[in-house]
Amino acid sequence: MADVDDTEQFEGTDSGASGTYPLQAGLVRKGGHMVIKGRPCKVLDVSTSKTGKHGHAKCHFIAQDIFTGKKMEDLVPSSHNLAAPIVTRVEYQIIDTDEDGFASLLLEDGSQKDDLKLPLNTNDALCDEIKAKLEGEKDVFVTVLSAMGEDLIVAVKEAADK
């Protein structure tokens, strides 16, 4: 007799993906990616110790944060799982840069992305190259590296002549 509808109403949801996936520590190789202290890193070196008194072989990872360049280390039993970031590289056409160091990028659907900052403190040579190529008459494309909700411009190139 109640007029109240007891069904739950959801306004909107996301997939709940965290930007990482589990990976066994013994399967991570040099050049691969893993998360250390909450940061996505590229593995520079891996060394594995033999099984010891307590039965676990350990993997010693030396890695570099893919966004800041900071070196990090981690020691994980080789049979345990660790988080590996989902890293993507996408190429966008760059339209312009503003005085605050933000780049205007043209997305595939024709819309603009204006919230990506140029890598001013980490890669000044790349910033200078982007600005120089934008002054030319050709179309300029940048490669954007994305992982765990962060984006970084890592390369620039001019469009090939047709």
CA distance, first residue to last residue? 73 Å
The helix/strand series, from N terminus to C terminus, equals: EEEEEEEEEHEE
Q: What count of helical segments does DSSP give?
A: 1
Radius of gyration: 22 Å
Helix content: under 10%
Overall number of strands: 11
Which whole number gives the mean pLDDT?
84
Write up this protein.
With 162 residues, the chain is mainly beta. It has one helix spanning 124-134; strands at 20-24, 33-36, 39-48, 58-65, 71-77, 81-85, 88-97, 102-106, 112-117, 140-147, 150-158. Strands 9-8-7-10-11 form a five-stranded antiparallel sheet, with helices on one face. Strands 2-3-4-5 form a four-stranded antiparallel sheet, with no helix packed on it. It has a two-stranded antiparallel ribbon with strand order 1-6. The protein is elongated. The model has no long low-confidence stretch (mean pLDDT 84).
Q: Any descriptors?
A:
162 residues; mainly beta; five-stranded antiparallel β-sheet; four-stranded antiparallel β-sheet; 11 strands; 7% helix; elongated
Give the SSE map.
Blueprint: E1 20-24, E2 33-36, E3 39-48, E4 58-65, E5 71-77, E6 81-85, E7 88-97, E8 102-106, E9 112-117, H1 124-134, E10 140-147, E11 150-158
Task: Please summarize what this structure is.
The protein contains one helix and eleven strands. With 162 residues, it is mainly beta.
